[in-house]
Structures are given as C-alpha cells and as structure tokens.
Amino acid sequence: MTLLSSAPVSQPSASSAARALHNALFTLDSHIDIPWPDQGDAFVDTETRRVDLPKMQQGGMSAGCFVAYIGQGPVTEKGHADAQTQCLAMLDAINRMQGTQNGVTARVCSTVADMLAAQAAGVLAVVPAVENGYAMGDDPALLAQFRAKGARYVTLTHNGHNALADAAVHRPSLGDKPERHGGLSAVGRDAIAHMNRLGMLVDVSHSAKSTMLQAVQVSAVPVVASHSCVRTLCDHPRNLDDEQLDALKESGGVIQITAMPAFLKPREGDGPRTANVADFVDHIDYVVKRIGPEYVGISSDFDGGGAIEGWQNATQGVNVTEELLRRGYDRSEIAAFWGGNFMRLLKKAEEVAEQSAITA
C-alpha cells in the first residue's frame, strides 16, 4: 500500500471501479442520529434528513448504527428519569425502522450474524445504540433494558459530565467544573462491567482523556470511539491524541473517524469551518501510519452535525471509497475501514457476553 497526498478540495464523480467496490462491500456507518421528537418516516426520502433508508439504499450502504441521543441535563433523580424515558422511546422509534415500504426493506439487527444475514438477503441493517450514559442515570441495571431493545453500544458521556464519567467538554451551565470524577466514577466502572456482560461496546467518544484511558483498562472488551477524529491533525478536545491512539491499539480497540468539520480541520480565518473527503481520509491515513489499519473505521455523525464536501448524505459514501482507492488502499483494507474492524469489536463483545453467561 502506497499512501498518496491529499486530493484537491473538489471531489469528482466516483469512478465505476469505486462504485463496484463500494456496492460489493459490507458498508457500515457507526454513528447516525435520529431526528427527535418528530422523527418522521425513515422509509421516505426527504430533504430534511441526511440519512433515511432510501438514501442508504441508493448510496450502497449496508448498515447504520442509529443512536438514541440524550443531551446532558441535570444529574438529578428527575433528570435521570426523564433521560431514561426519552432513551427508551427513541430506541422504540429505531426499532420501528424495519419492514418493507417504498421499495426498501430494512431489519433491526442486534448481532453480527443478524447483520451479515441481512446483507446476504439484500436488506438494510439497522443497529440501535445509545449516546450518553446519562440515559441510565446512576443505575447500571437499566442497561439491560437498552440491550433488550437491540442497543449495541453506549457512549459513556456527551458534552457535560454525568454520573458515570467526565466528558471531554464540560458544561459550566450545568454546574460542571473541568473535572467531576477524575475520569470514571464507581458507577461508571460498574456500568462498563454490565456492558461487558450484556454484549454492548463501551463508546469513548465525547469522553475526557482520563475517562477514555481508564475505560481501556477497565473494559474486558476493546473500546470504540464511535465518532471521533485525530487530535494531532485538529486540536479539538473531542479528538484522540497519540497517547490515546496507542492505548486503543494496545487494547485492540477502534476509532471511527467522523465527518464533522470541527473535528477534521482547524478553522481558517473568520469564515465557516469546512472540510472535505480528502481531509476525512487524512485522519484515516494518520491512524493507519500511527497504529495500523486494523484500528480505524468510518462514521458520518449525519443528522447530528456531520457533513463534509463530497459526503453530504448517505447517498455519497462512495466518494470516501474513491478517495481510499486513490490513496492506494486495497480491497481488504477498505472493507476493514467500512465495517470489518467495527464488526470485529461487536463480535468480541458477543463472545465475552456468552462466556459471562456460562460462568455466571
């Protein structure tokens, strides 16, 4: 593999070779938000959503992790109860994204075997997840309810500290100081143990560096950063620095590079922050050179703020494949980036959960 320099800002139409490869791969986007509370009909192609099922089908996507996103609120009994209620309702909405409508068929999948079976049947795989451990409040037992609704990972924090852990971005408006727990709390460590037993991945995107490094040590399953970028290339607290990338490799984890301009490229001048597909793949290149191709994947954060020139919605993922081919990556590496590495972690989580059930 020979890595080439970044492409020009403008992205040409994808080649037939890129389209053929993209359509043949299992392509998974590891982080997609759903509109809430007016989530609309995912089977209808609308201008208001960057991801819906028709766009996924048109774009040759195989699977998407749709998240029940819970914004951080007060760390109180009422705040926790409200967050739990909303999370369960959002997971129910994600579970309704299945069946056949408008020429599109989708299936909610809670295991890797389900996802591969969906691909073999030509069916889109919908994978539920939860963004922000605030949704479980201070009771890790609630995680079992999330898993029962198919959730495959939980992002430990969002912006703002919660009962589990410190976040990369604290919220003074909620009374946050820069640190609350010094990383993981005792509840957070218990929550990770529960996730390991349930077959749910521990997602360290949005987490403080201290939280992330401690989660790597505590979790029996390698952790994932479901939507993060490289701090060396863009100095944002949401991104992972070299020490974190090295810890990720040591544990066998994965960073899913995300299409969020603010995480991809420093602001230039006073204009709006922008980024393109070449900037996105620069972050993949960096991770590959630093720790290897086994530890990096792809996410969009569509409908949660993600969108870059050349990858504006779920119909345009082929442009990422085109740029990866242009840089000299081979089919096996591109397949790993587009879902293979993330699926490896999901499978490992299932194996640890099965072993935990046997030894319980």
Automatic annotation (TrEMBL):
<keyword id="KW-0378">Hydrolase</keyword>
<keyword id="KW-0645">Protease</keyword>
<dbReference type="GO" id="GO:0070573">
    <property type="term" value="F:metallodipeptidase activity"/>
</dbReference>
<dbReference type="InterPro" id="IPR008257">
    <property type="entry name" value="Pept_M19"/>
</dbReference>
<dbReference type="InterPro" id="IPR032466">
    <property type="entry name" value="Metal_Hydrolase"/>
</dbReference>
<keyword id="KW-0224">Dipeptidase</keyword>
<dbReference type="GO" id="GO:0006508">
    <property type="term" value="P:proteolysis"/>
</dbReference>
<protein>
    <submittedName>
        <fullName>Membrane dipeptidase</fullName>
        <ecNumber>3.4.13.19</ecNumber>
    </submittedName>
</protein>
<dbReference type="Pfam" id="PF01244">
    <property type="entry name" value="Peptidase_M19"/>
</dbReference>
